[in-house]
Amino acid sequence: MRLKNVLIVVKDIERSRQFYHDLFGLGLVLDNDGNMILTEGLVLQEEKYWKEFLGRDIIPENNSCELYFEERDIEGFVERLEKYYPDVKYVNQLMTHSWGQKVIRFYDPDGNLIEVGTPV
């Protein structure tokens, strides 16, 4: 058995597709009307369908999980983030951990937590 995909819930699927393309270079693999599979195994699911499937409310910024990306040129990434999404909500600005890894954490437009760090 293997993990195939990771699914996140979004309000505006096209806005989210653009966000993940602009910042992480993820491309569209499959568009299933309210469900998009992007490269690297990320799946976007429109909130209205997910609420219908689960019968429960969606809780943005619940901090129960995060998407983790690695980037060698993290300063360049931060410049791109600030250029394309100046209103992004940060958990922490670019910082350096005691072991030397640089990281930044922020929310996507739907409150999904993202961390970008330099390779360890």
UniProtKB/TrEMBL annotation:
<dbReference type="InterPro" id="IPR050383">
    <property type="entry name" value="GlyoxalaseI/FosfomycinResist"/>
</dbReference>
<feature type="domain" description="VOC">
    <location>
        <begin position="2"/>
        <end position="119"/>
    </location>
</feature>
<dbReference type="InterPro" id="IPR025870">
    <property type="entry name" value="Glyoxalase-like_dom"/>
</dbReference>
<dbReference type="InterPro" id="IPR029068">
    <property type="entry name" value="Glyas_Bleomycin-R_OHBP_Dase"/>
</dbReference>
<dbReference type="Pfam" id="PF12681">
    <property type="entry name" value="Glyoxalase_2"/>
</dbReference>
<dbReference type="InterPro" id="IPR037523">
    <property type="entry name" value="VOC_core"/>
</dbReference>
<protein>
    <submittedName>
        <fullName>Glyoxalase</fullName>
    </submittedName>
</protein>
